């Protein structure tokens, strides 16, 4: 019996046998019969294609339905509750990247003082999402809802602003990491450029427009060698794609401030560390490897110079974030129309005392009571800069920013958290 494919697409000449011994009538009949057969098959094919397409669209919409973890009356109610303020003059803040390191700490601090907080996070797997889920649970225990969704989801963003008249946005969602940018460059464009623009588009159209405070980075100083880094120093020599996307963010936010009257503050964070931190960062991965008896690689700069960072403790950063929100000023536009000039600011948030990376390892060894196996290596040309050092006088003047935690104290708190979260002997820590 011929297959359907054979019937529809005869490929061998012998398959259509022409019977020359039959009369014209019969030929006509056969011809008619074969035409009608083809017609029926064509109809069948069309019907098959149509049903395939509608099935496909059903599957797609089903996927959308099942993967979207937002929507529904109950969800809307939770959003409104989470955004409710609990103090006179309190803020309603949308915190993006709320299941991230800085985002979770800032969310808790805002809630604690009576502000309303709605979190947003895409829970991507740049590092172990279970740590992000654990932070989400922590926030949930304090009545903070973290919506699972992406900044680039225009409908979700619009929906959040439909439900809540956010007074402020604390935008901390980003693709972080300096060296990973060489492995996955498009993730930086997706989050740090496209995601930022989607957020700004949503904010500019909102009525009222929120004020925005967002995470820039010390990395914008790039190859700048004037220390300490001041906001007036040049930032046009980024050393990594990560830095370039943060610098681009500063330019993009300036545009939205200029055209739409959005009040915008960029915070240049200097290597932030602490409990619930990011496993991709050196202090965190060193801790894990030291405990597991693995060798750690310590990079070194030109002429065997040690690298140094202005490591900044999370609690100090949180104070800087809240201070920025409190002094952000107001956006002047509404519904996409500017009504007057609005503040545009950039601040360094650092610790002001750079520490060499080998010294960081010494401190970890002390707190962990384990000797590190060190391998010293020339810094690969992958976006790293030799040192960072913040001048914080501007932030001090504007909102009294004054870091109080040195690296010894901060790492002690980190190690205590690390051991309580992962345990001492576990090999499968992230
Ligand atoms: O301030 C910022 O704007 C950035 O801070 C952070 O970047 P960095 O300052 O590079 O921190 P981090 O990776 O902890 O490396 C610290 C030091 O350890 C060295 N380092 C690193 C890894 C390693 O295996 N060995 C090593 O010597 C390394 O060479 C470096 O000297 C954030 O990750 C980034 O998202 C961004 O926010």
UniProtKB/TrEMBL annotation:
* Entry membrane topology: Multi-pass membrane protein
Gene3D superfamilies associated with the record = NAD(P)-binding Rossmann-like Domain, UDP-galactose 4-epimerase, domain 1
Where in or outside the cell it occurs: the entry states: Golgi apparatus, Golgi stack membrane
* EC annotation from Swiss-Prot or TrEMBL: 5.1.3.6
Q: Name one Pfam family in it.
A: Epimerase
Its primary localisation, in coarse terms, equals Golgi
Q: What class of enzyme is it?
A: isomerase
Q: Which GO terms describe its molecular function?
A: UDP-glucuronate 4-epimerase activity
User: Which stretches are transmembrane?
Assistant: 38-55
Q: Which reaction does it catalyse?
A: UDP-alpha-D-glucuronate = UDP-alpha-D-galacturonate
Domain called NAD-dependent epimerase/dehydratase: residue spans: 93-327
Instruction: Please tell me one Gene Ontology term that the record gives under cellular component.
Output: Golgi cisterna membrane
Domain of life, source organism: Eukaryota
Q: Which UniProt keywords apply?
A: Carbohydrate metabolism, Golgi apparatus, Isomerase, Membrane, NAD, Transmembrane, Transmembrane helix
Keyword DNA repair belongs to the record: no
Family of this protein: Belongs to the NAD(P)-dependent epimerase/dehydratase family.
- Subunit structure, as described in the record: Homodimer.
- This protein is called UDP-glucuronate 4-epimerase
**What is the source species?**
Gossypium darwinii
């Amino acid at each position: 019996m011929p297959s359907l494919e054979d019937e529809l697409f005869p490929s061998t000449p012998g398959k259509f046998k022409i019977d020359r011994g039959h009369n014209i009538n019969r030929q006509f009949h056969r011809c008619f019969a074969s035409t009608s057969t083809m017609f029926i098959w064509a109809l069948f094919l069309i019907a098959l294609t149509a049903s395939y397409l509608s099935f496909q669209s059903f599957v797609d919409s089903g996927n959308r339905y099942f993967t979207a973890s937002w929507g529904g009356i109950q969800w809307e109610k939770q959003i409104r509750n989470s955004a409710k303020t609990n103090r006179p003059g309190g803020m309603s803040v949308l915190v993006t990247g709320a299941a991230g390191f800085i985002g979770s700490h800032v969310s808790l601090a805002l809630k604690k003082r009576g502000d309303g907080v709605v979190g947003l996070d895409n829970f991507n797997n740049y590092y172990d999402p279970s740590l992000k889920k654990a932070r989400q649970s922590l926030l949930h225990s304090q009545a903070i809802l973290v919506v699972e969704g992406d900044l680039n989801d225009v409908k979700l963003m619009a929906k959040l602003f439909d439900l809540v008249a956010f007074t402020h946005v604390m935008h901390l969602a980003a693709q972080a990491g300096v060296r990973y940018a060489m492995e996955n460059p498009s993730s930086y464009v997706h989050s740090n450029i496209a995601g930022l623009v989607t957020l700004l588009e949503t904010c500019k159209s909102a009525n009222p427009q929120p004020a925005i405070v967002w995470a820039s980075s010390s990395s914008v100083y790039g190859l700048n060698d004037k220390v300490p880094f001041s906001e007036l120093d040049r930032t046009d020599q980024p050393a990594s794609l990560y830095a370039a996307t943060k610098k681009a963010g500063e330019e993009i936010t300036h545009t939205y401030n200029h055209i739409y009257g959005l009040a915008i503050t960029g915070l240049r964070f200097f290597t932030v560390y602490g409990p619930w931190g990011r496993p991709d960062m050196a202090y965190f991965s060193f801790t894990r490897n030291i405990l597991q008896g693995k060798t750690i690689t310590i990079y070194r700069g030109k002429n065997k110079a040690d690298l140094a960072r202005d490591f900044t403790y999370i609690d100090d950063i949180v104070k800087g974030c809240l201070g920025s929100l409190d002094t952000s000023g107001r956006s002047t536009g509404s519904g996409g129309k500017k009504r007057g000039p609005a503040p545009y600011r950039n601040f360094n948030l650092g610790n002001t005392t750079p520490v060499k990376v080998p010294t960081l390892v010494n401190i970890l060894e002390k707190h962990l009571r384990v000797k590190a196996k060190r391998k010293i290596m020339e810094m690969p040309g992958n976006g790293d800069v030799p040192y960072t050092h913040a001048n914080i006088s501007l932030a001090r003047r504007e909102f009294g920013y004054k870091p109080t935690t040195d690296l010894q104290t901060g790492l002690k708190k980190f190690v205590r958290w690390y051991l309580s979260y992962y345990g001492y002997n576990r090999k499968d820590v992230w």
